Give the backbone structure.
Amino acid sequence: MDVELTEIVEALCQYAPFNELADDPQLYDMVKEIEIQYLRAGEWAIQPGVLNHTLFFIRSGAVETLGKEQKLIRRMNEGELFGSASLLRGGKFSQSMRAIEDSLLYRIPARWFLKLYEENDAFSDFFELDREVRLKVAMESQISSVSLLTCPVVSLLRRPPIGIDIDADIRMAAQMMADKKVSSLLIMEDNALVGILTDRDLRNRVVAAGLDYDTPVGKVMTRDPVVMDSGDYAAEAVLKMMEKNIHHIPIVKANHPIGVISTGDIVQTESHGSIYLISDIHKQTSIEGLQAISHKMTHTFTQLVLADANTQMIGNAMSHIGIAFVKRLLQLGEEKFGKPPVPYCFVALGSQAREEQTIKTDQDNALILSNLYDPKEHGDYFENLSQWVCQNLDACGYPLCTGDVMASNTLWRQPLEQWKKYFSDWIQDPKAEALLRLSIFFDLKGVYGEKHLAKELNKHIRQEAKQNPGFLTFMARNANQRKPPLGFFRQFVLDGEGKQSRTFNLKERGIAPIIDIVRVHALACGSDKLNTLERIEDIEAAGLLPDGRAKDLALALEMIGMVRIRSQKDQIEKEEAPTNQVNPAYLSSFEKRHLRDAFHIVARQQEFIKFRYAGKRS
Amino acid sequence: MFMRLIRTIKGNKPQPLQDWQAMFAQWAKDAPEGPLKRYYEAGTVALDTKLKDTPLLALDLETTGLNSKTDEIISLGSVPMDHRIVRCNGAQYWMAKPKGTLNAESVTIHEITHSELAEAPPLHRILNEILNTLSGKVVVVHCVSIEREFLLEAALNVYGFPLYFPVLDTMDIERLALSKTPWWKRIIARRPSLRLDACRQRYHLPRYKAHHALTDALSSAELLQAQISYHLDPEANISDYWL
């Protein structure tokens, strides 16, 4: 009678790479040689230093990989394989494996692994790929992708700098640019960089102004240009270009120019065009023009995803684009309603302030007015301006905030003194429920107008938070409101209602909890950063978390953020509206595995802040 | 720390330890010539063999009903193991054509069809092979009575002499393990189920489809491994645990 170990075959075929072998009679022969082993939590599957002859399949439970000195390398769950690396190296094992839950393991003899590895491409590809992904995770501190956006600027330089003496005239300069086919010239004085002259300058400051071509370049150049160090990242150059609306940045090494990078250099390889998008925004003179650009946003977003940009880069780009819309609308508004009667600062709140915006987010903003503000005299002006800006942001694809956290709401359009009073009240006398709605105000950044107003307010917030540790207890409790979707046996718990019954919300259950956790720590250590990754650096430097835990948070954020961004890209490509919901059935087993780990980190860190900021019990 | 399966009923003395080796020697003399006599002559493990050194065989039968006098074995599955490894390599599966007709109910339970069984050999033709598989092993089953009674009956029919074998009963082990729970917990808690699937869940073992003889044999094999790692002492004598 033919022996069919159906249970085992079916279990294996649920997972890669065995699903590829489902029709292969060899699989049935292999299954007949499997040995089954039960391990209680804490028992070794592969002990340190012992020769391994087995490929292990985790039928149920969870196993951890430990490196030298018992350092945790990886956690593995149901359906995952381990031992392959040592089999490819003749059984030698530098890592050890231990069950962390009661586990049932299938032991596949080495000769079967080697045979299939040799004969079946899908099978060997799986292990190659697996190794790459693991490597990527191992380099957890450098979440860098291969994107150009994260390489050093020096790698973008294509030629030595072209420079001219400050005494040369414009004609000579233009001639040299034409000869050398460059769009900018460095202006040198006594061998030092003193300025830059670009195509745009020749057009705007020379031709348009009708200047004599004998004029020395020193009169039309941009003096003391923005420069960057050769070790800086290309990503920072992109951001600087966006921020300052410039197209050329000289790169210096030990104060000496070694080249110039231009938007062209970046766009040539990264054709996402978000830089163009921003300069386009600044060129628009009508709402219709801005709206037309807003339709290109989804394209820019998918391009960035395709270009392998990480979530940090995409968050940056999307936020800067968002801020560009705000700035341009305020400029147009000031043209429409006249110059502001008193100084003010328009502030971005939440994800835009943290530079973590994704595609399609609500607008969250506010207005800080100078203390000279008099509601009777100036009230109408700012009411009109902010109404107009918020309505038009809505028209440009940034929907009105459902919680009415917008500059158009009188409550959030107040003089600096009143803002300080708000925060003092919230911090000195925290109320749990109210704080839940207010946490967004703790990520606050001035984007237009008198930015020192926002700076001063932020300083006030940090001081108040530091003097009122009880407040952190409330924030920590808030950060525990939204739990990651992990069930008892490390299964995903789905939201389970209506249309979204097979999905869970990555933002609500993963990203927002991490941001909340990090915000609490950041306030505790008085960090003045807004960006979550930058806050994590400050938290790590302040030693608030045990070794490595801060990096864990950054890794979890990147992991969950990446899944969200990819899924949104897929939704856009299917012409659906991008959401934060994801259906785990559509995730690859890699994504599932790492997502699970990420959620685990979130859950653990939520526990940690509960105790870290426990406060006095009443 | 480890449980000794000494069954003490209130007021009664503990049962004397069973010496299966001695009993096998006796049956080897009494049994008629043939496969069954050779089975007993091959012997079984000594009572002071350590659990960790004992060759085990997980076994499951599917039958047409629960009465060994009137119902028949229709399939058997077995898989060899020791205290920590189950070896699929030696797994075996037999179907046996019953003399009587199959009722619809048991067909749906076992998912074995009439035509599959119609092609299978009758039990007496495969019993010899089954004896070879059992030879020298302590048999692991969940709920000892079914396997024991049906195989005893089958041997009586075929050889005119009973078939006995030493057993580790995972259901019995589970019952004793659960009885270690403090009395007040037992009163509060609902009476725990001793069904194979329920027992497996207590050790976080995966859920299988029940009622395929080989899968069920595998199920009890894995359950025993889990029970050993939680409750039994691999260094203890097999006679502490066998029935």
Remarks:
- The two ends of chain B are 21 Å apart (CA to CA).
- The CA atoms of residues 49 and 237 of chain B lie 5 Å apart.
